[in-house]
Design a protein that fits this description.
Elements lengths: L7 E5 L23 H13 L4 E4 L10 H4 L10 H8 L7 E7 L5 H14 L4 E6 L18 H19 L7 E4 L4 E3 L9 E2 L4 E2 L14 E4 L4 H10 L2 E4 L4 H14 L11 E10 L3 H13 L3 H11 L25 H12 L5 H11 L3 E5 L1 H13 L5 E4 L6 H16 L12 H5 L22
Helix pairs in contact: 4-5, 5-6, 6-7, 9-11, 12-13
């Protein structure tokens, strides 16, 4: 009899929490974005809960708005993820670290070097969340007048990932002999110079960091547009997705898993983990009270700012929050999959603008679950057992208390149902996720390229 399939869990940590007004909550760590001890506490809580990894989103620019919305945004400043995770790796033993980095606004060599270093510093616990960046405001930070088009960003991303993998394979696993007696430090036959020349990049190599302990840090992806789905099927090992209904989650799960075969991959090679925003109470009434309280913290300026994000180019000045939500634009150069999700949300019923912003204020379109620990576990189990998820990225409304509640109240129920581990069974992030260690693509092949003189 085969081993019972079990949940994978990620802790999506976003400073004060995922709710748009989390920073105003009395239980929030108000200076969370620049407070290392805060991140240390919640990461150690996630490790106590035996999570596979902590996950940190990032953008190379702030999300701008009007002066009124900007001054009320509690998420403007926060640590750069790889730097933060390098520090957190020294105060943890087992949990993985998935850091977001952009293929549009970074260069392959520097990124490959950073993540290989993080994998060494954490003893094989690093993951890279590959994003093309939907934030058009980032362009001006890098000397660009315009944010590149969606299709171009994904085309660049495909080449970017291949270059990074090639750099991670610069050295074979046993290339470094370090033999004092012979005076030989490395075996030249096990060094591979990339010499990549493509449409977007020209990268010679080799990388000046050895092959990462995991072979490659785990590749994670979050896009759900057509281009995003194809990139995930080709390159991703974990995909973080946003789905509101079981039916939508099943469609996405089936579609992505069905694309793997053409790339020589099996369904087990890619884990699909939808986001879940749990509001947990010891009773249903308490959970609802928690939800209503945090929603009450949304300032009207912030509410209109949320709506303006999706109604770009639409004049809402003649509307009140109690008017029926008008039709959303059908196209964007930012996050196409998120716009589709919000359009689907409005098309499922007659929502007012107030109901729409309240639905988006919690987790930006990810699934909100309100209930007791038992009913939260029930709903997660339903998706897990019905072809919708391999696990979940948990998005606490407020930090640190939201993660405390999930670890202390929901995880024991999942463990009792034999749906989640009771101890870590491996040491690396790949082992936690049940992913194989990739072979070096150049190993065993005669390298025709010259070893540069500086090596």
């Amino acid at each position: 009899m085969g081993k019972k399939r079990k949940f994978h869990l990620g802790a999506f940590i976003q400073a004060t929490g995922h709710h748009v007004s989390a920073w105003r909550h009395p239980e929030a760590q108000i200076d969370a974005g620049s407070n290392f001890q805060h991140y240390r506490k919640i990461t150690q809580t996630a490790e106590r809960g035996l999570f596979d990894a902590v996950f940190l989103a990032d953008s190379p620019g702030i999300w701008r708005g009007t002066p009124e919305t900007q001054k009320r945004n509690g998420k403007l400043v926060h640590f750069e993820p790889v730097t933060l995770f390098a520090a957190l790796s020294s105060v943890t033993k087992s949990i993985g670290f998935i850091a977001t980095a952009s293929t549009t606004y970074e260069e392959p060599y520097n990124l490959a070097r950073k993540f290989a270093s993080l994998d060494y510093l954490s003893n094989g616990r690093a993951g890279w969340n590959v994003v093309t960046t939907g934030n058009e405001n980032a362009a001006a930070n890098f000397g660009l007048e315009y944010h590149p088009e969606h299709g171009e960003r994904y085309e660049r991303a495909e080449e970017f990932v291949e270059v990074v993998k090639g750099l991670w394979d610069s050295w074979e696993d046993d290339a470094f002999l370090r033999n004092r007696e012979s005076g030989i430090y490395f075996d030249p036959d096990k060094l591979h110079v990339l010499n990549h020349k493509g449409k977007y990049f020209s990268v010679k190599g080799p990388l000046n960091v050895g092959r990462p302990p995991q072979g490659y840090p785990v590749i994670v992806q979050a896009g759900a547009s057509e281009a995003g789905r194809e990139l995930a099927a080709r390159t991703a090992e974990v995909i973080f997705t946003a789905n509101q209904t079981l039916r939508d989650a099943q469609e996405f799960y089936s579609d992505i898993k069905g694309r793997l075969a053409k790339y020589g991959r099996s369904p087990e090679d890619l884990k699909i983990m939808p986001g879940a925003f749990p509001v947990i109470g010891r009773t249903e009434e308490e959970a609802l009270e928690k939800y209503e309280f945090i929603q009450s913290l949304i300032h009207p300026d912030v509410a209109w700012g949320i709506l303006a994000t999706y109604y770009k180019g639409v004049d809402l000045s003649g509307y009140s929050l109690d008017d029926i939500a008008p039709e959303l634009p059908s196209e964007t150069n930012n996050n196409k999959s998120r716009l589709k999700l919000v359009r689907d949300l409005t098309n499922r019923g007659t929502l007012t603008l107030r109901q729409l912003y309240m639905a988006l204020a919690t987790a930006r379109g990810h699934r909100t679950i309100i209930g007791t620990p038992e009913t939260i576990a029930d709903q997660l189990e339903d998706w897990f057992n019905n072809g919708a998820a391999d696990g979940f990225n948990i998005m606490p409304p407020v930090l640190p208390t939201g993660l405390d509640d999930f670890v202390d109240l929901v995880v024991p129920i999942l463990q009792k149902r034999e749906l989640f581990r009771t101890e870590y069974e491996g040491n690396t992030l790949r082992e936690h996720l049940g992913l194989g260690r990739p072979l070096n693509q150049f190993a065993g092949k005669k390298d025709q390229m010259l070893i540069p003189a500086y090596v």
